[in-house]
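Researcher: I need the complex structure. Ligand is flavin-adenine dinucleotide. Inputs:
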Amino acid sequence: MFKTRFTLTSKKQLTHDVYELMYSCSEFQENTMIPGQYVLFQLLPWLNRAYSIASYRDQNFTLIIKRIPDGKWSPLICDAPIGTIFSGMLPLGHFVLQDSSVSKCFIGTGTGFAPLYCMMNGCAKWEAIPANIAFIFGVRELQDVFYSSEIQELGSQFQDFKYITYLSREERDGYLRWYVTDWITPESIAIYQEFYLCGSPVMVKSAREKLEALGIEKEKIFWEQF
Ligand SMILES: Cc1cc2nc3c(=O)[nH]c(=O)nc-3n(C[C@H](O)[C@H](O)[C@H](O)COP(=O)(O)OP(=O)(O)OC[C@H]3O[C@@H](n4cnc5c(N)ncnc54)[C@H](O)[C@@H]3O)c2cc1C
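Model: Output:
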């Protein structure tokens, strides 16, 4: 982990409130980063905000940030003009991809997507690619879905890839209704050996409880909530 400065180089609005923001950092080195880690923005000397790194390449990293209208800092970060320089620390965190080629299941909601996407990308770069990967993602409505073509493209690199999106607030063809935790049944989880959860505290708690009740060892469940 090191203290550094990074510059906003590109910005794309993915949904009505989610932004893809790319930064360049001359001190960033790909090989010091483990998929799942985050960058800490030091916005004021006493005030920080953490954002999971969604992807990285060379001296660049990308974040996926939800702009919370009444939030103190996410509007400032999302509205910043290209060229804005931020101070912060990276890479940080222990919610990381385990170095094993066993089958993995990623379950996330909202911007909990970011570290899971980074981890799935990490798996695809290994020599021994895991055979079975599941990406189970939940948002409120269809208008909140983002990166589905990126996920499908990445998924095509795995022998058996399952990608399911849940919409909790509306019924739509091609999407399941209600919550990602509904997906957790003995049949659906049977072929996966590791579980990575990221999203709201309620979802993470409920998913952990369901997985443990179905006999998954605590050591095989990795999670982060925000
Ligand atoms: C390890 C870690 C990684 C994180 N990674 C990401 C990431 O990749 N993308 C991302 O967008 N955020 C991420 N977060 C959350 C982020 O750090 C901030 O908490 C978030 O952006 C809110 O900051 P704010 O200053 O705008 O709002 P604040 O002023 O801190 O909060 C304003 C209100 O918004 C609520 N709130 C906080 N987060 C959310 C949310 N996601 N949805 C709805 N309401 C919310 C708060 O409870 C509060 O009521 C991460 C947090 C942690 C701890």
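Model: Summary of the prediction. The mean pLDDT is 96.
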